[in-house]
Fold this sequence. Notes:
With 182 residues, the chain is of the alpha+beta class. It has one domain. It contains two helices and 13 strands. The chain has a three-stranded antiparallel beta sheet with strand order 3-7-10, with helices on one face. Strands 1-2 form a two-stranded antiparallel sheet.
Amino acid sequence: MSDILSTPQTTQLEAIPVDLTPLDIPDYKNICAFTIDNVCTPEECDALIKLSETDGYEAALVNIGGGQQQLMTDVRKSSRYIRDDVKLASDLWSRISKFVPATWSKESFPVIGLNERLRFLRYDPGERFKPHQDGPYQRPDGSETTFVTVQLYLNDEGLEGGETSFLNFTGNKVKVTPKTGM
């Protein structure tokens, strides 16, 4: 378990909506997308990077359904470190939870926190993840399902590219540019 984020958050956080209207996708009208600057300090981000590098990265796989993953470098070429850390997930949740709706979707699923399976992604020059839609994770007993992707950028130094893009079917994009701690 990690105490990296155990220091109370001192910076005032604000959720800034990502404007998806240029994509003109009817299904996106009720999509919740926003950024939050300074979720982590630069020092906390550095500590998380060091933690991930100490434990090590491996080739990122692609989820092909049914709980199966496969190496598909034509679709996804990057490195990934996976850490199951209930405390770190809880500490992150305590910082962002006030911005997340208490219930999710018209079925009113209660939002309870972040999945403790944290995935650290690293992209070296020329690496990528082709357009895709993040899928849900459901616990084996069916008790909980994820509906939301939370991304935290740990660095922005010397980056060329690296944006997260929301896409429509005609190729239009809305890009979110990485900032450390966002």
